[in-house]
Amino acid sequence: MKNSLLTFIIMTKIKNCYYLILSYCILFCACTREPDFKITKEFADSVKQYSYISKFSGGMAKVTTGGKDGFIDKTGKQVIPCVYGKIENFSEGIAKVIAEGEWGFIPERGNLTLKYIGKCGFIDKMGKPITPCVYDDAENFSEGTAKVKIGEKWGFIDETGKQIVPCIYEEVGYCFSERLARVKIGRKWGFVDKNGKQVIPCIYEDANNFSEGLASVKIGGKWGFVDKNKEQVIPCIYEDANGFSEGLASVKIGGKWGFVDKNGKQVIPCIYDKGFFSPSFSEGLAVVKVGGKYGLIDKTGKQVIPCIYDYAFFQKEMIEIEIGGKWGFIDKTGKQVVPCIYDYIRSFSEGMVNVKIGEKWGFVNKNGEQVIPCIYDTDKGLFPPSFSEGLAGVKVGEKWGFIDKTGKQVVPCIYDQVAWSFSEGMASVKIGKKWGFVNKNGEQVIPCIYDNDYGLFDTFSEGLAVVKVGEKYGFVDKYGNSTFDFDKE
Fold first, then answer.
1. Who's near 44: CB < 8 A, 6+ residues apart?
2. Which of 158, 206, 163 is nearest to 184 (CA)?
3. Which pLDDT tens digit goes with each residue over 21-61?
4. HEC states along 179-236?
5. Within 10 A of 464 (CB to CB), how many other CB atoms are there?
6. In what order do the strands lie in the sheet with 266-272?
7. How far is residue 478 from each of residues 424, 446, 467, measured CA to CA in Å?
8. Chain-wide mean pLDDT for the chain?
9. How many CB atoms lie within 10 A of CB 291?
């Protein structure tokens, strides 16, 4: 009895200490959190000169004046001067720039693409040139490299601006994968490493990126696999082949799909049809199709979920399914989690999924419970918003608002339009033709007085949102202060 009492006293003291420490941590975080950015007159004056501004990211915002792009910081200082015809957004701390150019259409993959055409280079976040504007085309950095073009030939540079792969190739892959990149000479593909060495010769009619140490390649109209030592580990005997995932790759023979392992052994016979996507394994399972019906198999080829569904798609731990025109979800054992009674469903977000009955939308949780009834409308031809930061936009009749996960209307349905999601605790809302912002308590923090072109996509980033009055751009902070306010002084 004494031991039990002593244990109880000790556990109570430990529990009290835990809550005391937790309280101190919460208080410390609240006290040390940086306050939201507040617009000053100096900042407002500094942004008046720009004909266009974009939202802040990484402490910088792209601005345009006199047809030239640059970047400002939170003090309004031009950290990168407005001297470029076009600047792309930063990727891996480096941005593509075009000094001078013009808009025009260029052919890309059989289509005409509108692009700003001119000599390309790269700068860092201090505005220091990584390379001068000498390239005829370029893509953003990815995994420390960027593809660049001189004349009609492509190569790669690294983040110092060094040309690690010379511009001698007709085409190159978008980026390196497993330290190798696809390159094309004439009509043949091969692979180079980051030293520019052609480790796999350009002898293939087509090739895909390396995945799990192997790459699918095509010779004589047939596909197989090579390793990084240019060994043909799986012969080119297949009509099609996809990359390896979880140790297996899907291959096609006689119009049917199956799977091979890295030794080329056909572990799952080619008996399956192609669905909406080529089959691949995820979490030990793959969606397959037989006779127009979908199911799931494991890595032994066992049909763990029978092919009885009109559609199936893996969504992390659950599988979206359709049967007889009705939609639901099953788990990886085949158990129906969300019953197939809905006319349409969307993806889960924050543990909730949009579901539709007739023309009305509601929400179901991951237990399959209809926590919010199907009573809401949406704009014609559009899906309704999903949950974001604990709230979701809903429409009643012709007006929009936001509900929480209990279905409570925390932002009343009085708006003509609302943002797709909350960002930093704020969402843009529209009355008539003017936009403003509400917080998560439903309070109209920023009145609907702005003329945003793309109000649905105007979100807070780093404490500021881009807004527009007439043809002029500016910023508004979370306190409701705007760069336009100082024009009135």
1. 474, 482, 483, 484, 485, 486, 487
2. 206
3. 444 444 444 444 567 889 999 999 999 999 999 999 999 99
4. CEEEEEECCEEEEEECCCCEEEEEEECEECCCECCEEEEEECCEEEEEECCCCEEEEE
5. 25
6. 240-241, 249-253, 256-260, 266-272
7. 9, 8, 12
8. 90
9. 7
